[in-house]
């Protein structure tokens, strides 16, 4: 399952370029925001720094020492970060998710193992660990798992599709060998997400550091998520942008979900006068991103 030197080199180059762009976007943003309590670097698994999560909790839901049994628990958003399966950390996504916490949701922001420390499906194994951790520890942070939502962008958007399919299709779940956590995702958002990975030419370059040749050969069914999607999926908010370089993935997913009768909405942001690119929604200084995120929260509020 070892990735080729060429794929690992491409992944390293992608990491350098992506981090430079993200650091520029987020320069000067505060690590604390009004109305949000942070719980940082909580261990959810055995892989050290790769299995750490943060919780951003609206102040009104912060656990109180007195009369806590009468306090309302917080609705929860779990975020799966993007980065082409080879890049990204919770630190990159903290500003975006704190902005969602300011809209009234507790946000779970976690690291997962990246190449060369992982290969498919080990990132999904970490996603599953987070959900089982929540199943056991939600009460420690006053989290309401009856009002649970999921978001992901780019590669994380594909993993949202994949994990929801794992949760809702026992046949697909059996391929991964996961136990069903005692929770239900009420709705989810796929932001500029990847999809249909088995199509020719989709997995190439840096991505091959995670989807190695061995995993592609031995685990084709586990990668073919769309094959196992059903109308049992929770309601989905699908968004993309006019300058999203993988816009076709969202358009194709929209049509596919319509074909199988899965409930969803499709949204596209930006125009020729104000173009928006891939994962534009993470830029908390961008008014279009703010509108997109408000639209997603409004969508979630319909199901909470």
Summarize this structure briefly.
The protein has 304 residues and is an alpha/beta fold. 36% of the residues lie in helices and 19% in strands.
For the largest sheet, list the strands in their spatial order.
Answer: 1-2-4-3-5-6-7-8
Rounded to the nearest angstrom, the radius of gyration is 18 Å
Structural class: alpha/beta
In what range is the share of β-strand residues?
A: 15-25%
The topology string of helices and strands comes to HEEEHEHEHHEHHEHEH
Report on the architecture of this protein.
This protein has 304 residues and is α/β, with parallel strands linked by helices. It is built from nine helices and eight strands. It has helices spanning 5-26, 90-101, 122-137, 155-168, 170-176, 213-218, 220-223, 247-260, 287-301; strands at residues 36-43, 52-58, 74-80, 106-110, 143-153, 185-191, 236-241, 264-269. Strands 1-2-4-3-5-6-7-8 form an eight-stranded mixed sheet, sandwiched between helices. Helix 8 links the parallel strand 7 and strand 8 (264-269). Helix 4 crosses helix 5.
Layout of secondary structure:
Blueprint: H1 5-26, E1 36-43, E2 52-58, E3 74-80, H2 90-101, E4 106-110, H3 122-137, E5 143-153, H4 155-168, H5 170-176, E6 185-191, H6 213-218, H7 220-223, E7 236-241, H8 247-260, E8 264-269, H9 287-301
Parallel strand pairs: 3-4, 3-5, 5-6, 6-7, 7-8
Antiparallel strand pairs: 1-2, 2-4
